[in-house]
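Exercise 3.2. Students should predict the tertiary structure of the chain below and write it as structure tokens, then compare their answer with the key that follows.

Predict this chain's 3D structure.
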Amino acid sequence: MLIIHLALLSLTEATRISASALSRVAAALQKQATRDFGPMWQVSATVDAFDRLEDVPVGYWPLIVVDDVPDAAGFHLDENGQPFSLIEFSDSWSLTASHEMLEMLADPLGNRLIAGRSPHPDQGVVEFLVEVADPSEAASFGYTVNSMLVSDFFTPRFYDPVAADGVRYSFGGHIRQPRQILRGGYITWRDPVTDEWWQQTWFSGDRPSFRKLGRLTGSSIRAAVDARTKTVSRIARDAPETERFTAALELVAQAKESTRARAEAWRRQIDRLRTADPLAGAWEGGEEDNG
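Answer key:
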């Protein structure tokens, strides 16, 4: 299995994200990719934090935190067709970073399609764009890794033809049947009969609604869809207002107490090792090495 290498870095104002915060989020993303996402989607990835774009090794795909995202499109391809993502800074930027990471791992080029029955009653078999975090993208369905808020995602069974008992359709278990969207989420598909793109969204109201996007002419489907749907800016704007985000902040404060205590214990042990005689009591008998 090929390993995907991701680089997390910040191009925001210097005071917004410290090197420590960047490293903590990178560690949370690494654990999510390895423990949660990888086994379900058969993907292997590393996530490392870097100070500057110049420090990113060749072959890494960057996740770049910026002050604002032009046209609200987080996903892009560089001049060589390699993926990179822009993450709009907010108090909940770890959630956005997780969202972008998961979708990059599942569909690096932003063009992966899977056939299935359309949610629209007037359509038949359509082609769904694989956006693993969109149907349950709202912060209220996220969860914490290392006390950092990260995004929920659906499993490959999301595209099953019918619902079945005991099947896990999303990591957090919030999605209960194939092709279901939750409040705050959406899915996107192409109708091959008309060559038009459609969405089912649930951004307001008591139930999801349909909207026709029209024909697509851009090179990356996901980049065009994200820009039209304003995914990145919506997550950055809405997530800090949720109860789940508030709970995550409280968890961060509790975790800091634990990590601070553990760090002090490590420091005390290191100090003892530095001041003690490492050979005291370790050997008995024997002869001195005189060279």
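Discussion points: The chain has a mean pLDDT of 89. The longest helix spans residues 243-275.
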